Batch of 2 targets.
Target 1
Amino acid sequence: MRGKSFEVTPYEVKGEVDYGKLIKKFGVSKLNDKLLRRIERHTDDLHLFLRRKVFFAHRDLNWILDEYEKGNKFFLYTGRASTKGSKVHLGHLMPWIMCKWLQDKFGAEVWFQFPDEEKFLYKNEVTLEDTKKATYEDMLDVIALGFDSKKTHSLVDTKHAGLMFPQAIKVAKKITFSTIKSSFGFNDTNNIGSIFYTAMQAVPAFLPSVLKKKKIPCLIPLGIDQDTHFRISRDVLPKIGYYKPAILHSVFLPPLTGVGGKMSSSDDSKAILTTDSPAEVRKKINKYAFSGGQHSVEEHRKKGGNPDVDVSFQYLKMFFEPDDEKLKKIYNDYKSGKMLTSELKNILIEKINVFLNQHQKKRKLAEKRIDEFLYK
Amino acid sequence: MRGKSFEVTPYEVKGEVDYGKLIKKFGVSKLNDKLLRRIERHTDDLHLFLRRKVFFAHRDLNWILDEYEKGNKFFLYTGRASTKGSKVHLGHLMPWIMCKWLQDKFGAEVWFQFPDEEKFLYKNEVTLEDTKKATYEDMLDVIALGFDSKKTHSLVDTKHAGLMFPQAIKVAKKITFSTIKSSFGFNDTNNIGSIFYTAMQAVPAFLPSVLKKKKIPCLIPLGIDQDTHFRISRDVLPKIGYYKPAILHSVFLPPLTGVGGKMSSSDDSKAILTTDSPAEVRKKINKYAFSGGQHSVEEHRKKGGNPDVDVSFQYLKMFFEPDDEKLKKIYNDYKSGKMLTSELKNILIEKINVFLNQHQKKRKLAEKRIDEFLYK
């Protein structure tokens, strides 16, 4: 498998990602056990995302903890670039759930960016009305995750441009088009809005420092494909008087259809959406979830399944089964052939539907809470 | 003289400009007598800037009058990119005085842009604090010209970014970096803020249409060197549902030192600033104003002077002597040798000082009126 090619950019994830290689290529650090123990000293336990290395790499996380231990609390920055026809799926939730857990454990503020101009600028067919509608829907998902409204501030780029643009130009002055070309693969046919955009994306990483008139450390949990944007921020922010943001990188939740690439909501067969009904979840998992099982029950009982390539097992491991003992038993039972693919899928379906049932109730309640979360 | 080379870009004016050639090169239309008569039907008289072809070319001015005659009033758009070490000089006032006159005669709204990010983005050494301070000073000059505060709206880019940025991205989406390269001579080393900037500059040309939810014609009086920015606006605005702005182009007020280039306030010897004292004006005119006179009084009496290259005469013609008969007499007297250079300079010094005395009083009063002119 090592020899297979893969590609990870902010715009595309292709092939089966070799995360070991990616760590070297991107020049990030592995989230090792020593660092996990250091986190645990402050949090008592470790979220399964950390325990199981769903978040597997970082930049400057030790520094974030140094500062925290000196009494200089960090804030968290995450976001969502809403667009037409792309609803929130389980993969999107991972950095947000990570933020929520870190908020709870470290009492950290969360700054949530909704760059409603990004997809408008990048995609010909997407209008600002499309991204505004989608932003509203996506905010419901964020709020439903249970963030503390007193410590969570949403920035919607077109709504908060009065605050953000005067900061974005400070960043923009330090970024040449050469940098944009080499970082994002742009050329002269790209529009000047998309060229400027990365400056807007950098703003929440230092805006709290501007507002409080002191340098505050920033930690950004993200899918590793988004690292490029923040490599630029890390380069520029010290030049304008702020800290480099620290980063915590996650792997991609695999698409239903297999372990390559990342979950995408533009293809129904690949993603579980937060708005899916129990029947849709059942149908999608049964129909599409790539199985590590054998072709017949007899063969499966005899040879056993392969949980390491089985998408249902991966979802349990990466997201839905927090109990390490139970997960281990499922692993062994599936590998030995004691547990059939249909049984494994049923466990996952049940878990997802319990989660989505709760999420959708909270999502409904969130409709009345949007304003609470907007920065004022 | 025809053979001499000259260059006119938004960033530099070099050499003795051949305005006839420029009309062809830029593809603009000459402001001919027929069109002047058409304006006069609405205004009863013609400002000396029009009568004497200081504003000498246009784009779509006939269309502006067509719409006006149908009852669809135009608005005016002008601006000033404030920067460190560049104070307002007489040349800057020309498009603004033109706007004030058009406001009075046509009852037009004036939208005045102060893009306080522009020079910050274009010049390494300029800070946002510099441009903000300079913007304040420059607003005093604008207000001092007597605009109607009920019909005049100032936009300061960093203050009004909340309003402007969501419109600028609509423009930006339609402009590629190729266009910026060929229009402004940019390359890959330019920063992404300066690349984006022309989108911000386009906004006031359609913002009133956005706010009033109907298409309103826009007329932009400007020095012809600024035409490039608005060629792009004219190309893009119809693509996003608004009218092309019409343009009224002026020649450049020559620098004190001669008829080539344009007045510049970064060199003391070249410009009369609005804040100059009577003694400074006297000194600058006497010392620097390029003279069309002869080397001795005797020679001047015999051969006469050349008013066509004499800067003092040009300032009287382009700005300070509205009376055509008086101007003609000065021309003839200087040409015949009856009027000496010192006498001609004294006439100009007196005129400038009367103007600046009034202007500086109104400029002082303007300190309390800034808020009245900010768009709210």
Note: The interface with chain B takes residues 117, 120-121, 128, 157-166, 168-170, 172-178, 180-181, 186-196, 198-199 of chain A (CB under 8 Å).
Target 2
Amino acid sequence: MKPIPTKDDLLNARQRIEKYIHKTPVMTSHSINELLQCNLFFKCENLQRAGAFKMRGATNALLSLSNEELKKGVITHSSGNHAAALSLAAKTFNTKATVVMPKTAPEFKKQAVVNFGAEVIFCEPTVESRVNTTNSLIEKYNYTLIHSYDNPNIIAGQSTAAWELFEEIQNLDYIISPVGGGGVSSGTCLACKYFNPKVKVIGAEPKGADDAFRSLRDKKIYPSINPKSIADGLLTQLSELTYNILSDNIQEIITVEEENIINAMRLIYERLKIIVEPSSAITLAVILEKQVQFKDKNVGLIITGGNVDLNKLPF
Amino acid sequence: MKPIPTKDDLLNARQRIEKYIHKTPVMTSHSINELLQCNLFFKCENLQRAGAFKMRGATNALLSLSNEELKKGVITHSSGNHAAALSLAAKTFNTKATVVMPKTAPEFKKQAVVNFGAEVIFCEPTVESRVNTTNSLIEKYNYTLIHSYDNPNIIAGQSTAAWELFEEIQNLDYIISPVGGGGVSSGTCLACKYFNPKVKVIGAEPKGADDAFRSLRDKKIYPSINPKSIADGLLTQLSELTYNILSDNIQEIITVEEENIINAMRLIYERLKIIVEPSSAITLAVILEKQVQFKDKNVGLIITGGNVDLNKLPF
């Protein structure tokens, strides 16, 4: 297992990435608070560079490389926000990013990566093809693999979103973080553990992709098989590293219905006037499902990203 | 003609409303700047209370009333953002707002007003019915009419959006403001005239609702007859007051194609990740249409509001 990031790792990450990322705003909505009878604080990583918190981890990962490694370039397999963030970070540091993507990936996701100047290599939409394609490119070009969450530097980078949030908003009772592969939720757990242990971390997962919920319950990592959710950033499974961090630190994972993800998304669009992904709206969906649990509490929500296909909004 | 707001009127308005409104953020987008070759500063009044700059004018108008007038309640005829803002402001100051609305107004607009606690009175969708209905209510209940733009206190309130913008962003060359009835554009002109005369104010109007453009060109107020534009906040005509302020102070009005309004709206959704109305996106549409004119300039855009029917997005 890769090492769990230490307090110093988080401190270094925060200092290292500061000038390359936005300190995103924390938004509130009087009307949503009134409606749901609690005090919600939306940490708007949808307004982060490249449209997602992934910029934090990608930047930290690149800044953790040696000059020689950086020069040779980096590679990842992802069709989502990590790929776009790694591409933009690579551009920032004048190196090359290669992104291995299933050829079935939506055009607008491919376009985001290409726009930031990365090279896209298509593979078949299977794990085998993805791994083989990636490995053969690493062998050939000596690229460094930057995994989207099974990487301590990525997790240390992601921790800074929650950290900024509880620094700005005192007296939070909870922070709710989406759980996909466990990158941002692990980072959130570690930030709280090291710097604000009073805050409880809750994970949010779609019922249709609840492998992390089942993994923590049954104390073994389940693969994510045929997950079904509109929250397309949350379909991946935990790694050994993220499983261990979550099982030691997270209060609980709450799973939510698709309908509530869509309702939460719409509520955010209408009241906060910001564009968020379903994978972000799921944090508010947790409140919709468990109003009693959060009544009168101060709750931070990690709004992880805003990259949606506007032609396919669910309303 | 009603009196043109003085420098003191603006100073008083700013001080008066400060604690009742949000100081909205100014957003920028590296990628939009790169694409359009200029430096754009989006003054996000879509994030204002009640979702639009109208909250500024409505608050100032109510705070300008005597206690007796305030107690009797206020009335307006509008189906748009002014109605919602006046309703919320009235709620804030514990008085009653009545809104006269054509019975053909969209349900979601009616709902916004009702949610803020105002009484909605429906009239036929004609000017005559609207005026008669409003006047008979004023006669009966002694309400004070708060017109959405033909009112110096409203204009003084609206001026504070541009004022905050050029205070925060030094060295603006231009501020672009949408032009409907001329409330926010007049306020923008006066803020610049009194406090930052180096900034040139540009008006943005749909080609399909270009009555203000023609009015300034031909030096007489044209009525807005059968206007056609997706920018539903910009279909009204100038009053004598706003005509006079604009004709003395605005640099020019630029009219834009519908297609560019929609393209600009999409660009804002995709890159800034915020929800804006077509009537706001028109300011960016001006840049899309006149790239040469604004090349390398620092341009402030008044993003007036974010109240859209999510079921009817144009993409």
Note: The two ends of chain B are 42 Å apart (CA to CA).
